[in-house]
Automatic annotation (TrEMBL):
Compartments, as annotated in UniProt: Cell membrane
Covered range of the whole protein: 324 to 629 of 637
Coiled coil start-end: 285-306
Protein's name in the database: Metal ABC transporter permease
Domain of life: Bacteria
Stretches assigned to the ABC transporter domain: 54-288
Annotated source species: Microvirga vignae
Family from the record: Belongs to the ABC transporter superfamily.
Taxon lineage: Bacteria, Pseudomonadati, Pseudomonadota, Alphaproteobacteria, Hyphomicrobiales
Amino acid sequence: LVQLYIPLNFMGMLYREIKQALIDIDDMFRIIEQNPEIQDKPGAKPLEIKQAVVRFEDVHFSYIPERPILKGVSFEVPAGHTVAIVGPSGAGKSTISRLLFRFYEPTSGRILIDGQNIADIQQTSLRKVIGMVPQDTVLFNDTIGYNIQYGRWDASPEEVREAARLAQIDRFISNLPEGYDTPVGERGLKLSGGEKQRVAIARTILKGPPILVLDEATSALDTFTEKEIQDALDRVSRGRTTLVIAHRLSTVIGADEIIVLDHGRVVERGNHTSLLALGGVYASMWNRQREADQARETLKRAEEEE
Ligand code: ATP
């Protein structure tokens, strides 16, 4: 039996490795698809993570030369801290996360991780250390368990469950007829936006990256779901260097620093309380959003009473 077990076990290992390699290749093609001009420099070294400090230094960027999008953006996310980028639609918030992943290169300025310019390091090593919880998660046509396991193939079923529990999706999954083996995606169960986001959070918890980028959902979730997701995000970002791309403001209150971006420039920075006291762009965005939220709640209540 041992004679059979060893080769089978080896084949299992091989299978997992091939699968991981295929995913890496798949990721690689996605990047190449995004921008074939971004190549590793000859002799590029892998990124060495020490504390995971992220730093933007006077970053300028434009997708097309005649339209500058970022006009000298500088900020630092200290190790284990959370920095949120807020600002009006089109201000360049998501562009910042695309540059951090090196989907594009700054026109000038530098992006450093632990003092290493990301333009000089191997792209694969960069993407290994950054976890992303995107606005809209793509699910594979496979089981819900597989979709979480994608974060790390060698995770045990217990670790998958623990990640799901931390992401507040475990109870939902356990109540499904086939539990973690329930098929999802086009040919299976359809998940709501909030559920999909929690699957993405579980995946990221499993991956356990030192740097996190949270690209928050633009669409308004109901208050209960929003709170659940916020709790899950707080858990996953604890102790990690986190950059939050905030399209709504309700989730940035606890951030160590909030950077207000307007027309590609940092116009204000500080924490929630100091920015409200400043009475500038952030304060007016906050008031407008609160009014909109209140109006929505009133409308919902009126509909429920009818
Ligand atoms: P939102 O909150 O609405 O998502 P944002 O602040 O995240 O906005 P970005 O997605 O960073 O904004 O986009 C900034 C500007 O860059 C926008 O005017 C957008 O039209 C433009 N832009 C984004 N992607 C591209 C692209 N691939 N090519 C050309 N222009 C682009």
